[in-house]
Design a protein that fits this description.
The chain is of the alpha/beta class and 484 residues long. It has helices at 27-41, 55-67, 80-90, 105-108, 157-171, 188-201, 213-220, 231-240, 245-253, 266-276, 351-357, 398-406, 443-453, 479-483, and strands spanning 16-20, 23-26, 46-50, 70-74, 94-97, 112-114, 137-143, 151-156, 178-181, 204-207, 226-229, 256-259, 281-286, 290-294, 308-309, 313-318, 324-325, 334-340, 346-347, 364-372, 378-383, 388-391, 394-397, 411-421, 425-434, 462-465. The radius of gyration is 22 Å and the shape is globular. The protein binds methylmalonyl-coenzyme A and adenosine monophosphate (AMP).
């Protein structure tokens, strides 16, 4: 038993814990599988987890936490360049994967341990993590910045515990809840909230394998009580509702529909409310901070807001010069800064970036711009950095895509921007000056190039060809001149 999962005990032989497609584990089975694996990896420095949407990923991460070992979840669609960076930066001693998973080249030099979901050997019942400090790393999650490769956010155990307990308070989330979602397991949303969350409460999660409105309808009509999703998923639900009475009925039954990772447009909020009688609530978080605010289950759901600060989270808005804004007028815009036990400790191997992310008095600069309504509800109105793109709920840095594009022999210059997209929120647009204007590389070829090197969700969806990029007197690319 782990201090993070007090409900994960061997005697709960009939209580469902995890279901992925048609494979499932009870608490008793999960305790046996994670106990056995934890016994094998105890003392390993850090372990990489091949984070497919499968039982094995959940077993691997929970076992690492039980063993007091930090887990580095890897996107199984990561390209070679991205994977190479994450491995050389985080230096895991082992990779945990499902027995049938084929691992790509950069991982083949690493010792591999197959994750068994049904333990065959008797497991230890002593809590391996009893002496592990709450400050020690639980997870290292890679997140994009404006320039350069992704940074590893070191998330300590107390942040995982405190964010999940704050959400339990805000959402009246209990062991009775059955969560359904189809989120990836290599980011905070699907892994911490969507997998560790139900296990900490003693309830269960049904993962769809991949998101579909049919899967959501099936599970909510079959006893699931909560749905988590990114706005793209709720947009697809809103699109499907007019022709799908089963889906409308299913959503109408849910106890809580929660959206996060990006802003859910008011139009989608309204369409879902009109068709189902239920209001989606939004919560606001970041890889570095876990969850900061939420509309509460017992509060007023208000479209276009992310609710109020969670218990234990201090939140302030500041002016450009760092002066705190004291007005709650729904108008005065400032950067959101936060403080609390929900925060990460550092970016791995990046003391410079860590220092830059905090103010002298310990507030984390989120880079998100917001106003506050008179009753404290936070409304996010934008982002400081235009070079960060949120597409499908994934945060993507323009700089890393530009660097990948520049590695294509047919590209002389490249700039990347985001533009509004009804489905994805924003879509990635590449502006290319070809090396040879007579035979520029095709849009599909450039998309494949980025998908292969970085990840498919980072591929440009639109490519424009230019003779030259607009630059100012200093030679800096003027991105505003591109999208305008
Ligand atoms: C298409 N595909 C390709 C290519 N083109 N693969 C390789 N090369 C290409 N050129 C494949 C894709 O891999 C994918 O495969 C399929 O075609 C469809 O691609 P795409 O259109 O990109 O995907 P989608 O189905 O439209 O994805 C929408 C989505 C997804 C399901 C909403 O964006 C998603 O899962 N978003 C969740 C992001 C998230 O969890 N963010 C949390 C981070 P296949 O279908 O097989 O995959 S934020 C966070 O954690 C903070 C703390 C917070 O606040 O939550
Ligand atoms: P990530 O680094 O991928 O964890 O993404 C964190 C960012 O997602 C935040 O800084 C916000 O810009 C955005 N975000 C998360 N939740 C919301 C939300 N409910 N509304 C608007 N933006 C959000």
């Amino acid at each position: 038993m782990s201090s993070l999962f007090p409900a994960l005990t061997a005697d709960r032989t009939d209580d469902p814990a995890l279901r992925f497609g048609d494979r499932s584990l009870t608490y008793g089975e999960l305790a046996a599988a994670t106990g056995a694996l934890a016994g094998r990896i105890g003392g390993a420095g850090r372990v990489a987890v091949w984070a497919t949407p499968a039982l094995e990923t959940a077993v691997a991460v929970v076992a690492a936490l039980e063993a007091g070992v930090a887990a580095v979840p890897l996107n199984p669609k990561s390209g070679e360049k991205e994977l190479g960076h994450i491995l050389s930066d985080s230096t895991p001693t082992l990779v945990l994967a499902a027995p049938d998973d084929e691992l790509p080249l950069p991982l083949r030099n690493l010792e591999r341990l197959d994750v068994e979901t049904h333990a065959t050997a008797p497991h230890t019942t002593t809590a391996l993590d009893a002496d592990v400090s709450a400050e020690s790393p639980a997870l290292i999650v890679y997140t994009s910045g404006t320039t350069g490769p992704p940074k590893g956010a070191v998330i300590p155990r107390r942040a995982v515990a405190s964010t999940l307990d704050a959400l339990a308070d805000a959402w009246q989330w209990t062991g009775e809840d059955v969560l359904v979602h189809g989120l990836p397991l290599f980011h905070v949303h699907g892994l911490v909230l969507g997998t560790l969350g139900p296990l900490r409460r003693g309830g269960s999660v049904r993962h769809l394998g991949r998101f579909s409105t049919e899967g959501v309808a099936r599970e909510l009509n079959d006893g699931a009580t909560m749905l988590f999703g990114v706005p793209t998923m709720y947009h697809r639900i809103a699109q499907a509702l007019p022709d799908d009475p089963e889906l409308a009925k299913a959503l109408g039954r849910a106890r809580l529909l929660v959206s996060g990772s990006a802003a859910l447009p008011v139009h989608d909020h309204e369409r879902i409310a009109a068709a189902t009688g239920r209001r989606v609530i939004e919560r606001y978080g970041m890889t570095e901070t876990l969850m900061n605010t939420s509309v509460r289950a017992d509060g007023e759901p208000r479209a276009g807001t992310v609710g109020v600060p969670l218990p234990g989270v201090e939140l302030r808005l500041v002016e450009e010069d760092g002066a705190p804004i004291t007005l709650y007028d729904g108008e005065t815009v400032g950067e959101i800064q936060v403080r609390g036990t929900n925060l990460f400790t550092e970016y791995l191997n990046r003391p410079d970036a860590t220092a830059a992310a905090f103010t002298a008095d310990g507030w984390f600069r989120t880079g998100d711009m917001a106003v506050r309504d008179p009753d404290g509800y936070v409304r996010i109105v934008g982002r400081k950095a235009t070079d960060l793109i949120k597409s499908g709920g994934y945060k993507i840095g323009a700089g890393e895509i530009e660097n990948a594009l520049l590695e294509h022999p047919g590209v002389r210059e490249a700039a990347v921007t985001g533009e509004p997209d009804a489905d994805l929120g924003e879509r990635i647009v590449a502006w290319i000056v070809p090396a040879d204007p007579q035979s520029p590389p095709g849009a599909d070829e450039l998309a494949d190039h980025v998908a292969r090197r970085l990840a498919p969700h980072k591929r440009p969806r639109v490519v424009h060809y230019l003779d030259a990029l607009p630059r100012n007197d200093m030679g800096k690319i003027m991105k505003r001149a591109l999208n305008g």
